[in-house]
C-alpha cells in the first residue's frame, strides 16, 4: 500500500468511525473530514447546512457502495455499513459476522485483514469522487424556493442575465435527462432485461445524449467560445457512452437539434444502421442471440 497523505489518513479514519453506527449518517455523527469533501459539498442542496451536507454524504456513500468495484467483496462492504443484505438495526459485531460470511472468510481474519482494506478502498473512492468534482469546469446551479414572482425589468442588462440563466438551465436539464437514460440502460443491463427493451432504452439514451450535446454546443458557443474541451467535459458528466467518431457524434446531434422528439430523432436516423449498431453494441455489448429486428439493424 502507498503511504497515505494527511488528507487520505483523515478520510480513512473518518470512514472507520462510520462503522460504529453504519449508515445512514446522522448530523450529530457526521465527520467534518467527510462533510468537507468537494463531492459532498457540490451535491448538497445547501452547502452551508450540516443536515444538507449529511444527506449528500449519505447519498454519495450509498452510490459508491452500490457500485463497489470489487465484485467479490461488494456485498461484504455494504453489510459492514448496514446496507442490504444486512437487516436494519444490526450492531457492528453482527454486521462483521455477516460481512465475513458474505466474503467467505473466518471472522477474525476478515476483521484483521480484509476490513481495513475495504475501508481504505471506500476512502479512496470518496477522494477520487471529490477530485472529479474539483476538476469539473461547471457545477449545476442550485435552485432555491421562490414564493413571489420575480419579473424581469425592461433593461438590456437584465435581459442578458436572464437569457444566460435560461440557456444554463436548459443545458443542465438536458444533461440530467441524458444521465437518467444512461442510468436506465445500466440498470436494465444489470437486470438482464429483454433485448428489445434494452435497445429501446439505448436509443432513448442516444436521443437524450445528442440533445444534451446540442445544448452544450449552443451554450459554449455563446458563453465559452475559447474552450476547446468544454463540450466533452460537460457530456462526461452525464455518464459513460460508447466512443464515437466526430462525424457520428455530429450526426446524432443534428438529428436531435431544435428540440426534436424521440420519434423525429429515430426517423432522422432511419438509414444510419452503422451508427445505430456502434451506439447500441457499444452501450449494451453484443448479444449472442439477437432478435430478428436487431439483425436488420433497426432501432425503435
Give the secondary structure arrangement, pairings included.
Blueprint lengths: L5 H13 L13 H4 L2 H6 L6 H17 L7 H7 L11 H12 L3 H29 L20 H35 L4 H29 L6 H7 L9 H11 L5 H7 L4 H12 L7 H4 L5
Helix pairs in contact: 1-7, 5-6, 6-7, 8-9, 9-10, 9-11, 9-13
Topology as H/E string? HHHHHHHHHHHHHH
- Rg: 23 Å
Which structural class matches the secondary elements? Answer: mainly alpha
Oligomer: single chain
Largest sheet descriptor: none
Explain what you see.
With 300 residues, the protein is an all-alpha fold. The protein folds into 2 domains: 6-135, no CATH class; 165-295, no CATH class. 64% of the residues lie in helices and 0% in strands. The protein has 14 helices and no strands. The protein has helices at 6-18, 32-35, 38-43, 50-66, 74-80, 92-103, 107-135, 156-190, 195-223, 230-236, 246-256, 262-268, 273-284, 292-295. α5 runs antiparallel to α6 and α9 (195-223) runs antiparallel to α10. It is globular. It starts with 5 loop residues before the first helix and ends in a 5-residue tail after the last helix. The model is unreliable at 292-298 (pLDDT under 50).
Amino acid at each position: 500500500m502507498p503511504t497515505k497523505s494527511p488528507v487520505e489518513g483523515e478520510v480513512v479514519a473518518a470512514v472507520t468511525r462510520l462503522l460504529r453506527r453504519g449508515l445512514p449518517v446522522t448530523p450529530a455523527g457526521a465527520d467534518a473530514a467527510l462533510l468537507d469533501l468537494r463531492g459532498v459539498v457540490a451535491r448538497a442542496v445547501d452547502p452551508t447546512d450540516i443536515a444538507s451536507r449529511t444527506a449528500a454524504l449519505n447519498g454519495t456513500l450509498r452510490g459508491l457502495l452500490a457500485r463497489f468495484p470489487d465484485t467479490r467483496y461488494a456485498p461484504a462492504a455494504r453489510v459492514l455499513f448496514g446496507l442490504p443484505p444486512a437487516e436494519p438495526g444490526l450492531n457492528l459485531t453482527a454486521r462483521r459476522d455477516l460481512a465475513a460470511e458474505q466474503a467467505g472468510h473466518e471472522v477474525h481474519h476478515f476483521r484483521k485483514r480484509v476490513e481495513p482494506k475495504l475501508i481504505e478502498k471506500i476512502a479512496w473512492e470518496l477522494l477520487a469522487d471529490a477530485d472529479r468534482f474539483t476538476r469539473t469546469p461547471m457545477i449545476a446551479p442550485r435552485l432555491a424556493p421562490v414564493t413571489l414572482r420575480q419579473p424581469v425589468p425592461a433593461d438590456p442588462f437584465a435581459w442578458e442575465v436572464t437569457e444566460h440563466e435560461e440557456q444554463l438551465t436548459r443545458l443542465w436539464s438536458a444533461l440530467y435527462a441524458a444521465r437518467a437514460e444512461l442510468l436506465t440502460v445500466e440498470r436494465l443491463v444489470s437486470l438482464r432485461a429483454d433485448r428489445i427493451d434494452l435497445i429501446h432504452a439505448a436509443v432513448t439514451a442516444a436521443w437524450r445524449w445528442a440533445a444534451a450535446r446540442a445544448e452544450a454546443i449552443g451554450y459554449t458557443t455563446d458563453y465559452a467560445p475559447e474552450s476547446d474541451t468544454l463540450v466533452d467535459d460537460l457530456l462526461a458528466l452525464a455518464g459513460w457512452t460508447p466512443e464515437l467518431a466526430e462525424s457520428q457524434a455530429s450526426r446524432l446531434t443534428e438529428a436531435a437539434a431544435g428540440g426534436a422528439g424521440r420519434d423525429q430523432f429515430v426517423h432522422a436516423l432511419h438509414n444510419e444502421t452503422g451508427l445505430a449498431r456502434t451506439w447500441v453494441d457499444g452501450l449494451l455489448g453484443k448479444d449472442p442471440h439477437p432478435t430478428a429486428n436487431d439483425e436488420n439493424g433497426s432501432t425503435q
